[in-house]
Amino acid sequence: MNIPFDFHNHSTQSPDGENSVEEMVLRAIELGMKHYTITDHLEINKFYDEEFLYEEPVRQSSVILPQLKEKFKDRISLQYGVELGQALHDMTLTNRMLDSYNYDFIIGSCHMVRGYDDFYFLDYNEIDPQFLLDIYFEELLEMAEWAQFDVLGHLTYPLRYIVGDKGIAVDMEPYKAIIDEIFRTLIKNNMGIEINTSGLRQKIGRPLPDFEYVKRFYDLGGRILTIGSDAHCCEDLGKGIAEGIEIAKNAGFSEIACFKNRKPEFIKI
Ligand SMILES: [Zn+2]
Ligand SMILES: [Zn+2]
């Protein structure tokens, strides 16, 4: 089966991407995709880090993407997206970056909560994972209320590291109420969630978020859902999309959203 789409992935316009945007687009075409959105990182709280200065790559992408859309328009429907990380950590910068470019699609992500590094780097012997999850979900709720993005990126991201890599069990029961509140807020604001299939090829072995959350979102009335591999190289592009589609169908979805000019178009699954 051809892989129909991929709505979350990274190129060398991200600090951790391995292939150029054009290489990624060619791979998407090779995989038979009809719809493809590149979503390079824009990490607001790391914007001025010396290791990777975002200003220039983000500006470059705004030039490259329209050119590639035109170049490949007969072969694939290409969209210009961005994965906006930690948007609330510097609102002046976030607003400037949102006003400066014409993104098709914005994934709102939280890779680290205020005052702490990326969940990937934290030492869970020193910081209580349960405490971190408390503030993680509070920050997601704040993001959903702010509402200036299209879908919430990889809900349950910290579990990739806490449960997957470190093997620490966490009790998710205390978060049911706040996750419902996050979902209700997203739905009220005409926003969605994604199924991020990266977890399927990582130690955690589950998508982010898992089926039960996708179903809960649907049951509460959520109808905007995207699916993305979160590939950082050509090789991973499209991985897990077929499994993601099955999860979406089992949760009740019959359509997946593809954003163009910040508006969802629906693709039957
Ligand atoms: Zn991410
Ligand atoms: Zn990503």
* Number of distinct beta strands: 9
Provide the CATH architecture: Alpha-Beta Barrel
CATH class: Alpha Beta
The structural domain count equals 1
Main sheet makeup: 7 strands, parallel
Structural notes for this entry:
With 269 residues, the chain is of the alpha/beta class. The chain has helices spanning 21-30, 55-71, 91-100, 129-146, 157-165, 176-188, 211-219, 241-251; strands at residues 5-6, 35-43, 77-85, 105-109, 151-152, 192-196, 225-228, 255-260, 263-268. The strands form two sheets. Strands 1-2-3-4-5-6-7 form a seven-stranded parallel beta sheet. It binds zinc ion (2 copies). One zinc ion binds at residues 83, 109, 111, 153-154.
Question: What's the topology here?
Answer:
Elements: E1 5-6, H1 21-30, E2 35-43, H2 55-71, E3 77-85, H3 91-100, E4 105-109, H4 129-146, E5 151-152, H5 157-165, H6 176-188, E6 192-196, H7 211-219, E7 225-228, H8 241-251, E8 255-260, E9 263-268
Parallel strand pairs: 1-2, 2-3, 3-4, 4-5, 5-6, 6-7
Antiparallel strand pairs: 8-9
This protein binds zinc ion (2 copies).
Short structural summary:
The protein is α/β, with parallel strands linked by helices and 269 residues long. The chain has one domain: Metal-dependent hydrolases (TIM Barrel, Alpha-Beta Barrel).
